[in-house]
Design brief:
With 168 residues, this protein is α/β, with parallel strands linked by helices. 38% of the residues lie in helices and 18% in strands. Bound molecules: 4'-phosphopantetheine.
């Protein structure tokens, strides 16, 4: 068998990046030659952080991982995968509720570009209940999210939501 250079894309909104995402990145990058963490630049969706801010936070938190690159994309994921010559898409599954959407995405992506396989990693139990949506809700209600997100993200959230601006 000829040896292959394995390039995987870990796509997502990362709005904001959570400890669960970071765990998946650190476990995923050990399985491949290069892992491209790709932020979807979605103009249709109101985001908490700009793409530039999300890139900064991801770069800061993955600086110790030599084979990890942070980028953004718009349009179809499979087209981006083709441009980046990626042979895999990495996604995480936290609970059975993630399975249906992830299966649908993987099948659609496979139909459009069969040469790109989707690889799933199961979230670690301690991160299986964390979601970006919940982090956003907690922070707007003055809750403490420091145990759910990497430290640079917690810092930026505190700046964006100073205590007196939060909904009481
Ligand atoms: O972090 P998320 O919001 O669960 O990530 C979803 C994402 C970005 C992976 C997905 O929405 C996506 O790939 N969007 C790009 C558009 C696309 O390719 N759509 C067809 C397959 S779903």
């Amino acid at each position: 068998m000829p040896s292959r250079h394995l390039i995987a894309i870990y796509p997502g909104s990362f709005d904001p990046l959570t400890n669960g995402h970071l765990d998946l990145i650190s476990r995923g990058c050990r399985l491949v030659d290069r892992l491209i963490v790709a932020i979807l630049d979605n103009t249709q969706k109101q985001a908490l952080f700009s793409v530039a801010e999300r890139i900064d936070m991801l770069r800061e938190t993955t600086a110790n991982l030599a084979n990890v690159e942070v980028d953004s994309f718009h349009g179809l994921l499979v087209d981006y995968a083709a441009r980046r010559e990626a042979n895999a898409i990495l996604r995480g599954i936290r609970a059975i509720s993630d399975y249906e959407t992830e299966l649908q995405m993987a099948l659609v992506n496979r139909r459009m570009r069969p040469e790109t396989e989707t690889i799933f990693l199961m979230a670690r139990e301690e991160y299986s209940f964390i979601s970006s949506r919940m982090i956003k809700e907690i922070i707007t209600l003055d809750g403490d999210v420091s145990s759910f997100v990497p430290q640079p993200v917690a810092g930026r959230l505190r700046t964006k939501f100073p205590a007196d601006s939060k909904i009481k």
